[in-house]
Amino acid sequence: MGFELGTLARDAGYDLLAFDTVGSTNAEALARARVGVAGPVWVVTRHQTAGRGRRGRAWETPEGNLAASLLVSVEADRPLAATLGFVAGLALNQAIRTVAPNIAVAVGVDGLDEPRGPKLTLKWPNDVLADGAKVAGILLEVDALADGRLAVVIGLGINVAAAPDGLPYAATCLKRLGSDATAEQLFTALADAWVGFHAIWDEGRGLSEIRRLWLAQAAGLGAPVAVRLGNDILRGTFETLDEDGRLIVLTADGARRTIAAGEVHFGAAATAALQ
């Protein structure tokens, strides 16, 4: 089975470029934006050899995992365009639940559905966690188009069949969590889920609803947080997101700090991390 768009994505006019192996799906998408391709187009692969995560870190995509990048064009400024990362997180969380329902839900002894298995959460700004272990990461890159719009590439790397070892944080994959879903199945579900959440976002007009949906699935809300800001570390409690999607940290002295970017650790990890 190869990669295929879902019905919703096809009907909405999305295109698809699929590779058996590629250096970076984000790089492929950006290259097309720079020669005038406005999208929306997905670039996907089972095996990425030169992927990258946030802050230039490498992101491994061995055979069987999924690397997917979506190129879209928006009439928005860069801060608003960056909130598409929240859209992607919501879509990815829904896609995982669709193809791997055994991870989150099972039939109880009384015949009713009841929660079971890892809890899927969204970690600010752009990760998906399963019981606190990273199962996916999202990287946004933005370029200006000649017509004044922005080309936004939303890259998603999902641990489907394998997870890297030796990282400074816990990582897992769908296979370890008991799912036999394939990268191809996950992509089809993701492409369709994106259409729904992108419609809610509505060129940024629906950001408040995206924020509400995202906070309902947020990791670490109300828990201790540590944020590296250059050479400094800010500690406090993850209180909420502001209306622009920035992290609000309540410090011990009662002050509220607004964070647009930073290396973040939540919960118990915040007390030991970033030493």
TrEMBL record:
<dbReference type="InterPro" id="IPR003142">
    <property type="entry name" value="BPL_C"/>
</dbReference>
<keyword id="KW-0092">Biotin</keyword>
<dbReference type="InterPro" id="IPR045864">
    <property type="entry name" value="aa-tRNA-synth_II/BPL/LPL"/>
</dbReference>
<protein>
    <recommendedName>
        <fullName>biotin--[biotin carboxyl-carrier protein] ligase</fullName>
        <ecNumber>6.3.4.15</ecNumber>
    </recommendedName>
</protein>
<dbReference type="GO" id="GO:0004077">
    <property type="term" value="F:biotin--[biotin carboxyl-carrier protein] ligase activity"/>
</dbReference>
<keyword id="KW-0067">ATP-binding</keyword>
<dbReference type="Pfam" id="PF02237">
    <property type="entry name" value="BPL_C"/>
</dbReference>
<keyword id="KW-0547">Nucleotide-binding</keyword>
<dbReference type="InterPro" id="IPR004408">
    <property type="entry name" value="Biotin_CoA_COase_ligase"/>
</dbReference>
<dbReference type="InterPro" id="IPR004143">
    <property type="entry name" value="BPL_LPL_catalytic"/>
</dbReference>
<dbReference type="InterPro" id="IPR008988">
    <property type="entry name" value="Transcriptional_repressor_C"/>
</dbReference>
<feature type="domain" description="BPL/LPL catalytic">
    <location>
        <begin position="11"/>
        <end position="202"/>
    </location>
</feature>
<dbReference type="Pfam" id="PF03099">
    <property type="entry name" value="BPL_LplA_LipB"/>
</dbReference>
<keyword id="KW-0436">Ligase</keyword>
